[in-house]
Amino acid sequence: MYECNIAEKLVELRTSKGVTQEDVAESLSVSNKTISKWENGASTPDLPMVVELAKYYGVTTDTLLGLSEDKKQSTTEEIRSLFEGLDRRESILKAFEAVKALVPAIFGTVSKYADDVYDKESVFPTDISHFYRSNISLHEFFEFVASSENVNLAVMMLRNNANFAWMNDENKQKEIVKIFKFLSNEDALSVLYFVHSTNCSESFTADYVARNTGLKEERITEILDEFCSVGACHRVMAHLTEGEVRVYECFGDGIVLSLISLAFERMCGRQSYAYNYNGRCKMIGGK
């Protein structure tokens, strides 16, 4: 009964984890044949290996041996419990802490995707309770965090399978450049500031924006039309008794605001860091 239970549990846990017998064998430094025998009940792991198996699958030894059911919270429940009772500032810092914990959890002490070997503790500090501005650069991972009166921002970027090849694609280059050309004008920033403010209704006309920004209506029409081509803004023609009126609709564009916030931090933010691991961030051409 005991052998049958642990054998079935091992198969269940491996299937749930989405790994092969070869993967498990390599991680535990045993042979594929040994894993196969454990899973078909021909033999059972000794006590030290039971402990290692439990660690590998993230369960208790009792669960592995079939002595108790491991009832785990859902990811949503676990995250919600982290934020219970926290005020806004504490919640922001906790969110940054959670983001920082993701990569060590995914990659472990040594990332199989890294070109170099990193000691987790040297890259990810233990104490982050007073983080306001931090930067971590690695070949396979980049993270930037800023928490101040100006911005609350957390950016995470991992190396992608496409190897960023699209950056060298002529057609995609033209599309990407459009948004940077749009954001390169001071008038556009002034319009985006008002459009994203709570003082601006979700539907508006160029005349309405002109009266609240001091810019000419013709110029604002140009900016809003360009915004419609690169951002989350839409326009329709309203047929009124006095004629047709161009009406714009925008609920806000978080991506555009993120781009502007990153540019602000790069060019106007303080350059000191609460923590800075300035390793190499050359993600193109990596393994």
Keywords summarizing the entry:
single chain, 287 residues, alpha+beta, 434 Repressor (Amino-terminal Domain), Arc Repressor Mutant, subunit A, 4-stranded mixed beta sheet, 3-stranded antiparallel beta sheet, 13 helices, 7 strands, elongated
Write a short abstract of this structure.
With 287 residues, this protein is α+β, with helices and mostly antiparallel strands. The chain is built from 13 helices and seven strands. Strand 2 and strand 3 form a beta hairpin.
Helix coverage percent of residues?
Answer: 40-55%
Shape: elongated
Major sheet attributes: 4 strands, mixed
Question: What ranges have pLDDT less than 50 throughout 5 or more consecutive residues?
Answer: 109-115
Give the radius of gyration: 27 Å
> How are the strands ordered across the major sheet?
3-2-1-7
Specify the structural class.
alpha+beta
Number of separate strands: 7
| Distance, first to last CA | 46 Å
Classify the beta-strand content into a percent band: 5-15%
State the domain count. 3
SSE layout:
Blueprint: H1 2-17, H2 21-28, H3 32-40, H4 47-57, H5 61-64, H6 75-83, H7 88-107, H8 120-123, E1 133-137, E2 141-147, E3 152-158, H9 170-183, H10 186-195, E4 203-204, H11 206-213, H12 217-230, E5 234-240, E6 243-249, H13 254-267, E7 275-278
Parallel strand pairs: 1-7
Antiparallel strand pairs: 1-2, 2-3, 4-6, 5-6
